[in-house]
Amino acid sequence: MNNKITVSCTKKNLKQIRDFVTVYLAGYKLSDILMNQIVLAVDEICANLIIHANQEDPSKFISLGITEKSGMLKFEITDNGVAFRRSEYREPNIEEHIRIGKKGGVGIALVNRIMDRVEFESDERQNTCLLYKKIK
Fold it and tell me: In whole angstroms, what is the distance from residue 126 CA to residue 107 CA?
């Protein structure tokens, strides 16, 4: 089973990423809700990297690798764009966003709710986002 994909930083490649994750997860007996939540979380991180970290520059790339060990899925997403600074992130009030009809700005909050663990790492070579989800 193929567990790694690399795509250029254009929004049209988000469908390819979603399809890749969906096909990979099909090998597990997941509920439709859990499957959709995981695909949404991975899609959100990849969209943020493509749009914000890499300014939709098709000459730049992001990679996604998926592994499973002891009932825990690990999604490793890497890029060379502007690093996400988690220390500067303030989680929005999602209910307030809904109330006022504000679009955007809640992706990381959703990812934090869906996944069991979310980590961001950066060094001089690359940025890595690690998403973990228990499936058993």
Answer: 22
Residues 6+ apart with CB under 8 A from 30: 38, 135
Asked whether the predicted pLDDT for residue 58 surpasses 90, the reply is yes
d(CA 132, CA 48): 18
Q: Where are the beta strands (DSSP E) in 9-108?
A: 61-69, 72-79
Q: What is the pLDDT of residues 87-127, one digit of tens each?
A: 555 665 656 655 666 566 557 788 999 999 999 999 888 99
Q: Look at domain 4-134 and name its CATH class.
A: alpha beta
pTM for this structure?
A: 0.86
Name 16's Cβ contacts closer than 8 Å, sequence gap at least 6. Answer: 5, 7
Contacts with 102 (C-beta within 8 Å, 6 or more apart), sequence order: 96
Beta strands in 1-136 (DSSP E): 4-8, 61-69, 72-79, 117-122, 127-134
What ranges do the domains of the chain cover?
4-134
- Exposed (0-12), middle (13-18) or buried (19+): which is 130, by Cβ within 10 Å? middle
